[in-house]
Design goal:
This protein is α+β, with helices and mostly antiparallel strands and 107 residues long. It has helices at 23-34, 51-60, 88-98, and strands at residues 39-48, 65-70, 76-85, 104-106. The longest helix has 12 residues, at 23-34.
Length: 107
């Protein structure tokens, strides 16, 4: 019996869900269907690779509430950021900026 091989290089963003192949178009559709705007949105991130990455994230969201939870092993920090947003486009803009920070996983 042949063993199934799993491609570990596939990212969640490689598999579009929804009507479009653009992940941000799909994200906008989902946000608008489940969130109320304007309102407070909870951004969730996992940071690996040091405190400088948290500083980079704080530069994107300077005036917003950060809740940091280090892992028990200290390998990563889970961060929730509460931000007042007007619409789904603001959420997507933050995710795009945060996606440029190496060592940042967007949840």
């Amino acid at each position: 019996m042949e063993e199934k091989r799993i491609n570990k290089d596939i990212e969640l963003t490689d598999i579009p869900e929804g009507k479009s192949t653009d992940i941000y178009v799909n994200l906008k559709e989902k946000l608008e269907s489940v969130e109320r705007f304007p309102g407070v949105y909870n951004f969730k991130f996992i940071i690996t690779g040091g405190l400088d990455k948290i500083k980079d994230l704080r530069a994107i969201l300077p005036d917003d509430e950060f809740i940091e939870q280090p892992s028990k092993t200290g390998k990563y920090v889970s961060i929730t950021v509460k931000k007042q947003v007007q619409n789904a486009d603001e959420v997507i803009a933050v995710y795009k900026q945060a996606g440029n920070i190496k060592g940042t996983m967007i949840l």
